[in-house]
């Protein structure tokens, strides 16, 4: 992928229109390639709950680059060192789950942004090759185009939302509506599209826009993504690769048995 494509994506998230992401939990890079060629704006590789290993993350980033699209990686809880590593490999951004405090947000920024904002260790050899940037140019521009998103998934995070958003170097937030529904209901249910989560989403997007930060969210399907796009979210995933496979497989099997 060209440096221009990565820089344009970062700017596009702020300026609009809403970007729609292909959520990829499966290891095969062909899944990334297939979905991106259907018109998705970027891929999100799910390291936290998906089937990925280090090799498949690299393959997914490479497949996205071949399609001239950016790839972001959702890392595991507290795995900020892995986040920096994936940026070194050419990921356009990282999504960190369970960011519940200013300390969590600052720890993320510290690992994925270069000084003077953070303390990211130098080693973006593949990222420089993928972008075509020299070492000096990469160091100069990486803090601007390497996107760091903090996942808001708990009642605790909502309580300090403005403080998390105010952390210098944090580019925005990414809502995990499933976990948010669990914590808001005190563990009683999982309802990512329920009224409590819906109200929280409105609060979140308004707070992010006030501070000039990216507002992003996971969506269970395209209809939900359309609703949140109309509310002003910058980046929205649309279901998952596994959900597409199950839904498509089931629908065609129903047709096959209708004789």
Question: How are the strands of the largest sheet arranged?
Answer: 1-2-3-4-5-6-7-8
Low-confidence stretches: none
> CATH H-level name... which superfamily?
Phosphoenolpyruvate-binding domains
End-to-end separation in angstroms reads 48 Å
Question: What this model shows, in words?
Answer:
The protein has 13 helices and eight strands. It is globular and about 65 Å long. It has a single domain, classed as TIM Barrel (Alpha-Beta Barrel), CATH 3.20.20. Helix content is 51%, strand content 14%. It has helices spanning 3-15, 29-36, 54-66, 80-88, 102-112, 125-131, 135-145, 155-159, 161-165, 177-184, 195-210, 222-230, 241-256; strands at 19-24, 42-46, 71-74, 93-96, 147-152, 172-175, 214-217, 235-237. The chain is an alpha/beta fold and 259 residues long. 47% of the residues are buried. Strands 1-2-3-4-5-6-7-8 form an eight-stranded parallel beta barrel, surrounded by eight helices.
Give a short synopsis of this structure.
With about 260 residues, the chain is of the alpha/beta class. It is about 50% helix and about 15% strand.
List the helices and strands and how they pair.
Blueprint: H1 3-15, E1 19-24, H2 29-36, E2 42-46, H3 54-66, E3 71-74, H4 80-88, E4 93-96, H5 102-112, H6 125-131, H7 135-145, E5 147-152, H8 155-159, H9 161-165, E6 172-175, H10 177-184, H11 195-210, E7 214-217, H12 222-230, E8 235-237, H13 241-256
Parallel strand pairs: 1-2, 1-8, 2-3, 3-4, 4-5, 5-6, 6-7, 7-8
Helix pairs in contact: 2-3, 4-5
């Amino acid at each position: 992928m060209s440096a221009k494509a990565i820089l344009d994506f970062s700017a596009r998230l702020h300026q609009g229109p809403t970007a729609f992401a292909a959520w990829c939990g499966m290891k095969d890079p062909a899944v990334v390639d297939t979905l991106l060629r259907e018109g998705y704006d970027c891929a999100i590789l799910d390291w936290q709950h998906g089937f990925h290993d280090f090799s498949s993350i690299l393959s997914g980033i490479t497949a996205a680059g071949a399609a001239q699209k950016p790839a972001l990686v959702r890392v595991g809880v507290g795995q900020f060192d892995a986040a920096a590593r994936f940026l070194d490999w050419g990921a356009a951004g990282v999504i960190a789950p369970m960011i519940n405090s200013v300390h969590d947000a600052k720890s993320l920024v510290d690992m994925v942004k270069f000084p003077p904002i953070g303390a990211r260790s130098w080693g973006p050899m593949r990222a420089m090759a993928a972008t075509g940037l020299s070492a000096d140019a990469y160091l100069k521009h990486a803090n601007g185009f390497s996107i760091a998103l903090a996942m808001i998934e708990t009642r605790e995070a909502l309580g300090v939302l403005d403080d998390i958003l105010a952390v210098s170097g944090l580019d925005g937030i990414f809502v995990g509506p499933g976990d948010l529904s669990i914590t808001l209901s005190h563990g009683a249910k999982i309802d990512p599209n329920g009224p409590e989560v819906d109200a929280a989403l409105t609060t979140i997007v308004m707070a992010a826009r006030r501070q000039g930060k990216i507002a992003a969210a996971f969506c269970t399907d395209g209809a939900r993504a359309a609703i949140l796009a109309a509310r002003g979210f910058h980046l929205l995933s649309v279901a998952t690769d596994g959900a597409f496979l199950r839904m498509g497989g089931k629908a065609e099997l129903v047709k096959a048995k209708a004789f």
